Each structure stands twice: as structure tokens, then as C-alpha cells.
Amino acid sequence: MRTLRIIATDEAVDLIIQLSMEYGLLMFQMNEFDEPVCTMDRKTKLNPNDVCVGEVAGCLFFMDKRKFERSKHTQLVLDVEKGKEKGLSLERALGLRFLVRSRPFTAEEQEELVEMEEDPELRMFSYIFGYGLQWL
After folding, report:
1. Residue 11: helix, strand or coil by DSSP?
2. 18/16 Cα distance (integer angstroms)
3. pLDDT at residue 124, as a whole number
4. In the Cβ-directed half-sphere of 80, how many Cα atoms lie within 13 Å?
5. φ, ψ of residue 18 in degrees (nearest 5)
6. Residue 116: what pLDDT?
């Protein structure tokens, strides 16, 4: 069984699909407050220290390399809850906010961990609504 570094709840995936239908391809970037910010893919300038830690529902997920090094023993779980209608993240206009929870990997999961390609430009698949990951 493959273990992913980042996963999402069903509610988060549903919201990503809803936002994707309105805005197109999306991406996530953890901000300085450890909050995931959802933006249109390629519209956000990444910081030089940002690394891609995985893909969730077809969206690349980036975070600061130092934060990643401190949290690489944990699995990130993207979730959604009610939130304020202000902020840069796309879901805020809907009165919602994404958040990330984490839990430690088990020893078995650590051995089965699937790492992201170093260069996200090499991504060769796309999230097709209702069908999961599909090769282009």
C-alpha cells in the first residue's frame, strides 16, 4: 500500500472540485501562519524555499522547506471548516477555510511513503472529476 505525504477529507475534495469548476487549476501554499492558501495554479509566486510536498485532488501543495523538514515525519490532512470571509485563499469568499491537521506516520507507513517528483513541472496526470487520477 502506498502512503501519501498529504491527503484530504471528502469535504475538502468536494470544495476543491467546486473551486476548480469556477477558477480552473488550483494550487496550495502554506503561509507563514501554517494556513493553506488556495490560489489559481501558476498565479501565485512561490518563495525560493518552497518545496512541493505532494498533490491533493489534482492540486500541487507547497510549503517552506524548513517547515517541511520539521514535519516530514507526519502526514498532512487537508480539511475544511467555516471561516471568515476575508483572506487571500479562494474558499474564503464562501465563508469557509482550509486547514491542515497532521498525524505521525507509523513505521510501516514511513517505509511505504511515496515521494513527490522533485520538479512539479514533470507532473503527467490530471485530476478528472469523479474519476481520480488519470494519465493525460
Report:
1. helix
2. 5
3. 32
4. 22
5. -60, -45
6. 60
Q: Which residues pair with 54 in a beta bridge?
A: 61
Q: Which of 24, 57, 48 is nearest to 36 (CA)?
A: 57
Domains parsed from the chain with CATH numbers: 3-109 (2.60.300)
Q: How confident is the model at residue 47 (pLDDT cuts 50, 70, 90)?
A: confident
Per the listing, cell 491542515 goes with: 100
Lowest-confidence segment of 39-43, 73-77, 108-112 by average pLDDT: 39-43
pLDDT at 122: 38
Q: Which residues contact 86 (CB under 8 A, 6 or more apart)?
A: 92
Q: Where are the alpha helices (DSSP H) in 1-136?
A: 10-23, 65-71, 107-111
Q: How is residue 114 written as a grid cell? A: 511515496
CB 36 within 8 A of CB 78: yes
State the CB neighbour count (10 A cutoff) for residue 131. Answer: 7
